[in-house]
Design brief:
Elements lengths: L5 E9 L14 H5 L5 H19 L10 E13 L9 E13 L4 E13 H14 L14 H11 L2 H6 L5 E5 L6 E8 L3 E5 L5 H8 L3 E6 L7 E5 L9 H18 L1 H4 L8 E2 L17 H20 L3 H10 L3
Parallel strand pairs: 4-5
Antiparallel strand pairs: 1-2, 2-3, 3-4, 5-9, 6-7, 6-10, 7-8, 8-9
């Protein structure tokens, strides 16, 4: 691995006072919630939903349903291609880190790193490169090396000293399932993650995460109405405690109810064979304002930004590094 690639980890608390900085990737979902006239109410209601969901799942020795609160930190990862030469650091990814405060025992419990996943290079891959590749094609296809550079950069970060210094366990990313796939309920049931679903063919997003060294399993937690996709690199069921898993579920189930209410705030739960749809009408809205159209537009703008500031100027270095990188 090229030692000139230097990673820097920064964090900022995500609470009702949070305001996105100028360097924040503004298509990040939590940044979208923190803008506009209703920003404080948005954030306050989101955090309350997360706490309520956590306590509903962690209901043992919790008779009043208020034993725990969840704190969230936004983790921003920057990468300098050649720090020794004075190159400025480029924003690479943003994730969330959870921690749990147990009011009964007056104890803070470390949660999970990952949860939400935002990436400038992924914006470029999906919003710029993939569209350009298919512009004049009769049938949709994917470039042969699609996601390879992004995957190697992500694994380089996980193997870096910066990651080891800041985080004890590998990340778990939790996102929405694909609306282009059908999921089938199994008999496998986990006490925290809930019932497991399977699908016959991985989605493009699943394959993209696979290049990042992450496997996927789909679970519908107790009280949820649709499965979530959990991406991980070790053993999801044994590497993390119940409270760690609940911190991820409560956070991302809440965000998905806001982002994709058609699926995750539907008025009926997924059945044995389930194909999610953003076009179905039987769902409820939260009181939290989220601008989905703005996010899609900004993804393209920021894909162009990373193309001009990272991919093009460092293309030769990145291609050489990727070719020689064994990650």
């Amino acid at each position: 691995m090229n030692n000139d690639f230097t990673f820097t980890v920064k964090n900022i608390r995500f609470d009702e006072n949070y305001r996105p900085s100028d360097s924040t990737r503004i298509t990040t979902n939590f940044a979208n919630l923190a803008r506009g006239e209703e920003r404080e109410e948005n954030l306050r209601n989101t955090l309350r939903m997360i706490d309520n969901r956590f306590n509903a799942l962690a209901d043992w020795d919790n008779p009043n349903g208020d034993r725990y609160t969840v704190d969230l930190d936004i983790i921003s990862v920057e990468m300098a291609v050649d720090a020794a030469s004075g190159d400025s650091a480029l924003p690479l990814i943003e994730v969330l880190k959870t921690s749990v405060f147990d009011k009964k025992n007056n104890e803070r419990i470390e949660g999970v790193t990952g949860n939400n996943f935002s990436s400038y290079v992924r914006d470029y891959d999906f919003s710029i490169r993939l569209k350009e590749h298919n512009r004049n094609q009769d049938e949709f296809s994917v470039p042969n090396d699609f996601g390879v550079l992004h995957g190697k950069l992500f694994k380089a970060f996980l193997n870096s000293e910066a990651y080891r210094e800041n985080f004890k366990k590998p990340p778990v990313i939790c996102i929405s399932i694909s609306s282009a796939r059908t999921y089938h309920r199994t008999e496998n049931h986990h006490p925290v993650l809930g019932v497991e679903y399977l699908q016959e063919e991985h989605s493009l997003t699943d394959e993209y995460f696979n290049k990042m060294g992450m496997k996927v399993r789909y679970f519908m937690p107790p009280g949820s109405v649709a499965p979530l996709a959990f991406y991980f690199s070790g053993d999801l069921l044994s590497d993390y405690t119940s409270l760690e898993l609940i911190s991820t579920i409560s956070t991302m189930d809440t965000f998905q109810k806001i982002y994709r209410p058609e699926i995750y705030n539907a008025n009926s739960a997924a059945g044995k064979a389930y194909r999610p749809s953003l076009n179905q009408q039987d769902y409820s809205l939260t009181r939290i304002v989220y601008d989905r159209e703005e996010r899609n537009r900004l993804a393209t703008e920021q894909g162009k930004f990373v193309e001009e500031s990272f991919i093009k100027p460092y293309r030769h270095i990145l291609e050489q590094w990727s070719a020689n990188c064994a990650l």
